[in-house]
Design a protein that fits this description.
Distance between the termini: 37 Å
CATH superfamily of the largest domain: Type I PLP-dependent aspartate aminotransferase-like (Major domain)
Radius of gyration: 21 Å
Structural class: alpha/beta
Bound molecules: pyridoxal-5'-phosphate
Shape: globular
Number of domains: 2
Number of strands: 15
Strand content: 15-25%
Helix content: 25-40%
């Protein structure tokens, strides 16, 4: 099919609310490593990795081989029958996750992973209420949308009661209008305030992302999670850490984002990059907490932990242990960050650069003093970068954040290529004064 045929059929046979990037949507055809090609043969350096999902690059030979071998062996059996890949991956997850996290429940997406975490927290604690963060994103199910802290992602209304949202640690736009250098993470105290004023006083859980992904890579100060987790435990709750975007090395130097804050989650969820693009979610917890589900009723995920996705995930981890290690991600991420900060010095439209490792956000503003968001500039940067062969992502409560998150195999040369294209794009867009 040519480009126009694909776009026509997209319009005719897919719901009109499908979100598509770019003024003229971009039908992709194939990928290899850091690059993808559209159906007309144009090549793009991929710095969004299918929403932080193609962890070790497109068609990584080890992942492809593992999937091909498994596809010829057993595609599906359901979790009613134990399977080697399933248990092997669970063992591996116990090894790479921090603290006492030990026992996994595999599903098919981040939404399901978060749903499973909340279900477990309620069963274990016997409490019902959940605290989430403003600007957070937790998925597209009724519970996922209710946990989400952005009205635009809550289609059809707020569905589930008993969820309250605390202030998020958005230092660039501090909700308390304090100075991030001296505030001592005062926003963390809001979690206690919300529990005391808006719940029954006992909560099942506090759910948060180490770095808010859809929220525009909002990165909490270093004291934040220690303060919050202590509060949450004092009120009977568990800390559910949503690593759907930050998981598997993305933040550099560590396997999981939360490790940078030196706290141990009670439950951790992950999805996106853990199987390099095959559908998979995981909810991992301690042996003691997992006992909370026993005797409470039945639950099953037909496709969860299926032999194909688990094969892909095992191969992805193998590549990350050798090629795209957390250390490599830390080093290349450091180069990316330094380059983006240089662009910030050069272009007034860059208000803030934040994030960790290969998860860097660039917030665009009309004016550095007023910090008025510049979503139109993001749209213009998108068109400019596409024209020069670079794919990036966007996000943020005000649609004004560029999300830069390449596959984790990115090298110094890839980063230089991307920075060069961004430099040209910013130069053009700065001129437009959007
Ligand atoms: C932090 C976070 N949690 C949960 C989800 C939901 O994941 P999925 O789209 O796989 O259901 C997302 C998706 O973007 C996410 O970023």
């Amino acid at each position: 099919m040519n480009k126009q045929e694909i776009l026509d059929k997209q319009k005719k046979y897919l719901w009109p609310n499908h979100l598509l990037y770019y003024t003229e949507p971009l039908p992709l055809d194939h990928g290899d490593g850091m690059y993808v090609w559209d159906v007309e043969g144009h090549k793009y350096l991929d710095f969004f990795a299918g929403i932080l999902t193609t962890s070790v690059g497109h068609n990584h030979p080890k992942v492809t081989q593992a999937v091909q071998e498994q596809a010829g062996k057993l595609l599906h059996s359901s979790t009613l029958y134990p399977n080697e890949n399933h248990v092997k991956l669970a063992e591996k997850m116990a090894q790479i996750t921090p603290g006492k996290l030990q026992t996994s429940y595999f599903t098919n997406s981040g939404t399901e992973a978060d749903e499973t975490a909340v279900m477990l927290a309620k069963c274990y604690t016997g409490y019902q209420e959940i605290i989430a963060l403003r600007h957070g994103y937790s998925g597209r199910s009724p519970l996922g949308m209710s946990l989400t802290g952005q009205a635009s992602w809550r289609i059809g209304g707020t569905h589930i009661l008993g969820i309250k949202h605390a202030m998020n640690p958005y230092c660039y736009r501090c909700p308390l209008k304090m100075n991030p250098e001296t505030c001592g993470a005062a926003c963390a105290e809001d979690v206690e305030e919300v529990i005391k004023t808006s719940t029954s006083g006992r909560i099942a859980a506090f759910l948060a992302e180490p770095i808010q992904g859809v929220g525009g890579f909002v990165t909490p100060p270093k004291e934040y999670f220690k303060i919050v987790v202590e509060i949450v435990h004092n009120y009977g709750g568990l800390f559910i850490c949503d690593e759907v975007q930050t998981g598997f090395g993305r933040t550099g130097d560590k396997w999981f984002g939360i490790e940078h804050w030196q706290v141990e989650p009670d439950i951790m969820t992950m999805a996106k990059g853990i199987a390099n693009g095959l559908p998979m979610g995981n909810t991992i917890t301690t042996e003691a907490i997992a006992q909370g589900m026993v005797g409470q009723g039945l639950t099953i995920s037909t496709f969860g932990g299926n032999p194909l996705s688990t094969a892909a995930s095992l191969a992805t981890i193998e590549v990350m242990e050798t090629e795209a290690t957390p250390q490599h991600i830390g080093e290349v991420g450091g180069l990316l960050r330094a380059g983006l900060e240089k662009l910030q010095e050069k272009y007034p439209l860059v208000g803030d650069v934040r994030g960790m490792g290969l998860m860097q956000g660039v917030e665009l503003v009309k004016d550095r003093q007023t910090k008025e968001p510049a979503p139109e500039a993001v749209v213009a940067v998108f068109e400019q970068t596409r024209a020069r062969g670079l794919l990036i992502g966007k996000g943020g409560m005000y649609n004004n954040v560029l999300r830069i998150a390449p596959p984790l195999i990115a090298t110094k040369e890839h980063v230089e290529e991307a920075l060069n294209i961004l430099d040209h794009a910013f130069a053009q867009v700065q001129e437009l004064n959007l």
